[in-house]
């Protein structure tokens, strides 16, 4: 019998590769940052990650990393949930990150992806008594949702994974199967994004973002007990809305049908930034055009993260 042709991985979408990664305790060329196929996390999703953005400011020639310490605080909490014990503090991780970005000499917007994972090479579904490791890479990055200023979202048929099934407030690799199912269902059906409900039918969040609606001048977002990831962008926007725009913010459960009567809606997250939702499941949100609160908030947010408004410089870490 003839030897079958080697199975090739299905075509990989083109993505820019960085030059370096932090891997097994040191910086190596990206091609050397490779794990064995027996690695536990590859089989069981036993990893945790973060997604952080760096914004390039052309005027000042500076790259600002947004809320670096806060991302690593949540990252280390996710590690605790998954019994991954790293030899690094939040400050160590911030230091490693800034060092790696400098080596790439970026002069553009970037995305930073730290990953902690069960590096054990062998069989056995559990968390305890398994070694873990940390790796990190950074890549140039633009938009996550193509249609950021007016996206069409569908209410997903997939429910958000419950905190008692997989801790929702952890950014846990395996839990992102839930996000991927919802995102793919939405995109294959012609939508831009998914809105995911909790098992009891309340609005939880997007596939990889939190969600706000606006009703009668009030911004409303799901509470942290409705199986959301405790988003850093969400917390940022709550503060800007309240303190700078004078918009009251309510954290409370959101009914499914409120999506169809609200005046404005938007996703927020490191990847999606602030993506205005102008249609939900074929119905216009408000007028069907981006509303005034989301529009002003986006402007303020983008000026702030780039260091252009000189507001909240305490959230920005300059790289150079
Ligand atoms: N929910 C989920 C499921 C996410 O993956 C993300 C992206 N990290 C968010 C919400 C938004 O979180 P953050 O603003 O901290 O990026």
Description of the structure:
The chain has two domains: 20-140, D-amino Acid Aminotransferase, Chain A, domain 1 (2-Layer Sandwich); 151-305, Alpha-Beta Barrel (D-amino Acid Aminotransferase, Chain A, domain 2). It has 320 residues and is α+β, with helices and mostly antiparallel strands. It has helices at 40-44, 68-81, 90-104, 176-188, 232-244, 292-305, and strands spanning 20-23, 26-29, 47-49, 52-57, 62-66, 110-118, 132-140, 151-159, 193-197, 203-206, 210-215, 218-221, 249-251, 264-269, 273-280, 283-284, 316-318. The strands form two sheets. Strands 8, 9, 10, 11, 12, 13, 14, 15 and 16 form a nine-stranded mixed beta sheet that branches. The structure holds 4'-deoxy-4'-aminopyridoxal-5'-phosphate. Residues 51, 179, 205, 208-210, 229, 231-234, 269-271 line the site of 4'-deoxy-4'-aminopyridoxal-5'-phosphate.
Bound molecules: 4'-deoxy-4'-aminopyridoxal-5'-phosphate
Second CATH tier, the architecture of the largest domain: Alpha-Beta Barrel
Query: How would you sum up the global shape?
Result: globular
- The fraction of residues in strands falls at 25-35%
Tell me the span between the first and last alpha carbons: 60 Å
Biggest sheet statistics? 9 strands, mixed
Q: Compute the number of structural domains.
A: 2
Number of strands: 17
User: Briefly, what CATH class of the largest domain?
Assistant: Alpha Beta
Rounded mean pLDDT score: 96
Question: Can you count the helices?
Answer: 6
Task: Fill in the CATH topology of the largest domain.
Answer: D-amino Acid Aminotransferase, Chain A, domain 2
* Helical content class: 10-25%
The unreliable regions are none
| Radius of gyration over C-alpha positions, nearest whole angstrom | 20 Å
